[in-house]
């Protein structure tokens, strides 16, 4: 399995940014780390190895960007308004530096997104906000409510980055049409502490007639062994 390391300066954060890439060709998939995780986390915990066959066969190429959660949502030293602004800067890195690079390398006009836990938040939030850029999204044990990170503060930026708030009110035909084109997979364990959040997200998508696959896996918890199993299965569904 081919592995590439990239380090580049991004204007959106005014700093260097790191990323690992696995594979040489195929559908581009942006895979986010969990909360405050580093770009090599998904490799270290075996998520990459769980789909090694698809990577070696040239069916998928995986891009693993760094996170800056410790500077944004989890940075309780700064004001919540600044946490959201920092998150928005990160979003620009993903949109303009990572996604565009992945599209250029693979020759594809759309990318897939994936993540576990808070990484699932990043994947789902970007997919719902920029659906014309996204072909698929895989979310495992995701948490989708950012209100615990803003401690009572609220503004438009908070609203438009909290799927539980903006999705129930979304009636724009263009957005709904494009979201409905995305292959959406949501998986969570029955013993996961985010089971209810995932069920709630599925109910919201159903209310908007957005087709998706939703699974509450029996005897599964919020942990990597279960994520590896589900990830392998869901990637295979995307490729089939």
From TrEMBL:
Keyword tags: Hydrolase
A Pfam family this chain is assigned to: Esterase
MF annotations from Gene Ontology: hydrolase activity
InterPro entries assigned to the protein according to its UniProt record, in alphabetical order: AB_hydrolase_fold, Esterase-like, Mycobacterial_A85_antigen
Source superkingdom: Bacteria
The keyword Translocase is annotated on this UniProt entry: no
Stated name of the protein: Alpha/beta fold hydrolase
Naturally occurring in which organism (per UniProt): Stygiobacter electus
């Amino acid at each position: 399995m081919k592995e590439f390391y990239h380090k580049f300066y991004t204007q959106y954060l005014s700093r260097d940014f790191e990323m690992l890439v696995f594979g040489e060709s195929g559908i581009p998939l942006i895979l986010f780390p969990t909360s405050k995780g580093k770009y090599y986390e998904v490799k270290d915990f075996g998520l990459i190895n769980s789909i090694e066959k698809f990577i070696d066969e040239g069916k998928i190429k995986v891009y693993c960007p760094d996170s800056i959660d410790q500077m944004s949502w989890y940075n309780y030293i700064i004001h919540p308004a600044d946490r959201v602004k920092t998150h928005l800067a990160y979003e620009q890195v993903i949109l303009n530096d990572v996604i565009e690079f992945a599209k250029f390398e693979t020759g594809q006009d759309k990318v897939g997104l994936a993540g576990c836990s808070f990484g699932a938040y990043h994947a789902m939030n970007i997919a719902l906000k920029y659906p014309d850029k996204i072909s698929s999204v895989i979310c495992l044990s995701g948490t989708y409510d950012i209100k615990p990170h803003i401690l009572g503060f609220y503004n438009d930026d908070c609203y438009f980055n909290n799927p539980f708030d903006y999705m129930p009110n979304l009636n724009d035909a263009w957005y709904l049409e494009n979201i409905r084109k995305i292959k959406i997979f949501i998986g969570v364990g029955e013993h996961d502490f985010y089971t209810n959040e995932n069920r709630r997200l599925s109910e919201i998508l159903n209310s908007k007639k957005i087709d998706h696959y939703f699974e509450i896996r029996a005897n599964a918890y919020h942990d990597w062994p279960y994520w590896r199993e589900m990830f392998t299965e869901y990637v295979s569904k995307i490729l089939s």
